[in-house]
């Protein structure tokens, strides 16, 4: 049965917010829905508890779904049945139809085309390219919390270890959730640590799974880049079953394959393009999910869900010339023209959720348990260990190099009740709960051949000194009270306490308010504090990356090598956030929201205290790393290492704007126009120092914190649909603002300098996305379209600032992707 509590899981397939973002057809529409809707004073009413889950009316087809202002939102509120139009904080709603309408086979890349406040890395390399991360409001991916049906999702075990704004992050890999199973996504653009705990500093992404008890959907997506590479194929299937009119089971699965793309410049050692370091890795991913609910009694429902995904991915390392094997004839014969080591990932990710919810004596209750795990096994392929060959006369060409495991088990109890009293004229909603979370992180040892002697070339294995398993317990409790101070004045107060067995206690609070002056004008505001606890990976991870003439490493903050050079124990990041906005309808049907925000973030965690040359050599040796022969004599930043530290305080300020307007052309169809803008700027307020007094950041890392995310991102355009919904045409422009980086010199007077860098502007870029959809029958549709159809690329890096001349686009930003145009054919059927 559908109790009031189960409204947390109500989904309106294809629904968008009234006036904000139109009802989606099979039309490839792009704009994300927001709550820029007519302001209403009417209170939300919960669905009667006697209504059955399995017997509820079938969801209407997209063309019949009612206005989205009635859509129920569950993110950012503890009230049940809260309508989007009444939300006290800015929430974007992205439907499944909008996601598939982008033509992208991955959730991450789809969201990046829909939400201006969300960014993804320009590219990637090494292991960092093999996890799909997202960022909100120009902050590290660790500062965005991801939920699935309101429950905290476990994170990846694959830390982003390479330089850049995402360095040190172990976020949720959202592409391990089948896109076919996603009904819609609610993105809360507001600090919400007091409501949800650690990581909800920039915002919250809540992925709502499908719960339909009938139907079958099939979709095929095929695409290729403007350069003729990077072929992608996606197959998506899902369907629902009715359980005796008392429940549902919904099952779905994805298969996605992506080929390599190559965007490298000419290798200055050979003047050829044999070095294929720069580009999209090859990836094959299979994922499945099941979601179920069943009414045990009229007041108790059991629910469960499970996801599983397997990924195999391969990323190229820098090319090794044939001359490197001149002394090893046996392997010179295997690689007569040289070789490019391959970093290969086999990843298994799963999560199980089970719980009961219902009503008792007027209280809504929810008891749940969520267990999730991500396991990553990295192999080094097409490589050698020449030190081992020298000592023993042989070396493998494939190595089991590194493995990581991340486990999270969360148990929660949530309660909520709406009270009406004689001393207060308005209803008071009281919510509270408690949770216990167990977190574990493990680093496995590589095969002996991967870490002994000179280690596996390109991607060394983990030695026993840096392997281990670590865990911690997290206990939390929260209280949330919301009511009206006046008829049109809402207020919400939330507080939370958490205890971590490794980093101590945290206390967070939040106050939000909204006042409706009229049905066409309202204001809202929030003041809160939040935190991000250092992850176990940030506390304990260590690894070494080796290139032909350089090596760099990350060592654990509590290791001998780090402590000898001034490292300190990591503290949680803490934030103070303020936000204010307006919701206005200046003329009929034109709906506008504007929100400004400021986030002060203290004790930010990034690698700091970088040491170079002989000092780095000593630290790495103290931590058990085997280094290439002769590396003790390398100069400057050819050999470097650092550790994670609380490096700085920053202030992020920005503005979000959305506007929508519909136009009816009568027998010539209907068009929906939309604009969404994010302006964002981060400044350094304070830089920390190590225990030795040395500054923890250089100019390059300050740029990662402050200017690696675009200063602005603008999405605007429209979607036209014919009168009988046979045709739909969508055209949208995206403008990516400027990013600024500090580039290392690899030639010239400042070669490998650690104090002189080139300031490089990645200038703003305009891209065009367009699609044409034909609804062949009421059940079948086909879309042909393209993203970045005129094939714009990031700004080209000067020759002297490319390692070996290869990375002609700078990978360590989050602006425009480097693949160029992407063109696709999408065919779908619904039964």
From TrEMBL:
<dbReference type="GO" id="GO:0009279">
    <property type="term" value="C:cell outer membrane"/>
</dbReference>
<keyword id="KW-0812">Transmembrane</keyword>
<feature type="domain" description="TonB-dependent receptor plug">
    <location>
        <begin position="84"/>
        <end position="204"/>
    </location>
</feature>
<dbReference type="InterPro" id="IPR036942">
    <property type="entry name" value="Beta-barrel_TonB_sf"/>
</dbReference>
<protein>
    <submittedName>
        <fullName>TonB-dependent receptor plug domain-containing protein</fullName>
    </submittedName>
</protein>
<feature type="region of interest" description="Disordered">
    <location>
        <begin position="34"/>
        <end position="68"/>
    </location>
</feature>
<comment type="similarity">
    <text>Belongs to the TonB-dependent receptor family.</text>
</comment>
<keyword id="KW-0798">TonB box</keyword>
<dbReference type="InterPro" id="IPR000531">
    <property type="entry name" value="Beta-barrel_TonB"/>
</dbReference>
<dbReference type="Pfam" id="PF07715">
    <property type="entry name" value="Plug"/>
</dbReference>
<dbReference type="Pfam" id="PF00593">
    <property type="entry name" value="TonB_dep_Rec_b-barrel"/>
</dbReference>
<keyword id="KW-0675">Receptor</keyword>
<keyword id="KW-0998">Cell outer membrane</keyword>
<dbReference type="InterPro" id="IPR039426">
    <property type="entry name" value="TonB-dep_rcpt-like"/>
</dbReference>
<keyword id="KW-0813">Transport</keyword>
<feature type="domain" description="TonB-dependent receptor-like beta-barrel">
    <location>
        <begin position="330"/>
        <end position="789"/>
    </location>
</feature>
<dbReference type="InterPro" id="IPR012910">
    <property type="entry name" value="Plug_dom"/>
</dbReference>
<keyword id="KW-0472">Membrane</keyword>
<keyword id="KW-1134">Transmembrane beta strand</keyword>
<dbReference type="InterPro" id="IPR037066">
    <property type="entry name" value="Plug_dom_sf"/>
</dbReference>
